[in-house]
Amino acid sequence: MNQKIFQVNNLHFYFRILFNDNKLFDLSFSENKNDLMERQLSLKINKNSSSKFAKEVQNQLNAYFTRKLKKFDIPVHIEGSEFSLKVFKEMSKIPYGKTKSYKQVAEKIKEPKSARAVGRVSGSNKIPIIIPCHRIVGSNGELVGYSGGGGLLFKSYLQLLEKS
After folding, report:
1. Which of 46, 66, 79, 119 is the most buried (most CB within 10 A)?
2. Residues with catalytic annotation?
3. d(CA 86, CA 10)
4. What does the alpha-carbon distance between residue 101 and residue 110 come to, in Å, rounded to a whole number?
5. How high is the pLDDT of residue 50?
């Protein structure tokens, strides 16, 4: 497994990606670089900061945060149950600047009574932003839950970024 830690232009968050065979396995971010580095020691990950793939992920995140990219084109590796994979696939279809409720996602995957399960899957997303779990909201449109760094405040920031 390879990793890269970097900052996105004009954003004080640090990002860490884990990748292998030109597929993204994990995207983590934090205001504190040390939070990301501590995990790297425990995982015994190889450093690979010169990878073309890693540079492409960084470039696409830079473009996203400067509103120049609306849809990521990064191959990802996702594991999970059949249900989880359906949720991640449906989540990835939510257009830039739009939101859907957990219930709407459940209905789209033909599991109308599984809104809470959709929420659990969304909370387990290891590739936030690229798999846009920030575009899922509660049934009243309220912000609820966010598995990415920065919590609900960052989820709100991502939604505002996309709507402006």
Report:
1. 119
2. 133
3. 34
4. 14
5. 64
Averaged pLDDT, groups of 10, the chain, 164 residues long: 86 89 91 72 53 93 95 95 97 96 96 94 93 90 68 85 89
Q: Which residues of 89-108 are buried (b: 16+ CB within 10 A; e: fewer)?
A: ebbbebeeeebbbbbbbbbb
pLDDT of residue 37: 74
- Cβ-based neighbours of 161, under 8 Å, separated by 6 or more: 65, 67
For residue 9, give both structure tokens.
């232009």
Angstrom distances, CA of residue 73 to CA of 4, 99, 115, 128: 18, 20, 28, 14
Q: Are 25 and 126 in contact (CB under 8 A)?
A: yes
